[in-house]
Write a structure and sequence with these properties.
It comes from Aminobacterium colombiense (strain DSM 12261 / ALA-1). The chain is of the alpha+beta class and 125 residues long. It has a single domain (8-124), classed as 2-Layer Sandwich (Muramoyl-pentapeptide Carboxypeptidase, domain 2). 30% of the residues lie in helices and 18% in strands. It contains four helices and five strands.
Amino acid sequence: MLSEHFSRTELACRCGCDRCDIKPKLLSLLEKIRSLVGTPIFINSGYRCPTHNKRIGGVPNSWHTQGVAADIRQAKYSNNVFHSKVLRAYKDGKLSELGGLGLYNGRIHVDVHKPKDGHLRQWRG
């Protein structure tokens, strides 16, 4: 296990290369989000090697290739409610390491890459 609730298998690259260069700060964020929503978090995409990232159409220099991003989902709330809960927790100072929050169909993207000015990057995919 990489942390209390997340395994290496869950966060490793899905191409079969077995790389899993996940940063501890991301694991901390994922644990906080899991605690916040009170339900298991499922990892759609964690670490991606550059080859796999390119193959699936990921943006060059994706935060996933640097081990600081994950696409996640859970089964308790709608995706919009899940996104709103994470955003509210950030605004309440409970997820200070959050640097990016994206809303996609069926998942949200979270990352711990903080821009120099410290603002939270947000988008909808």
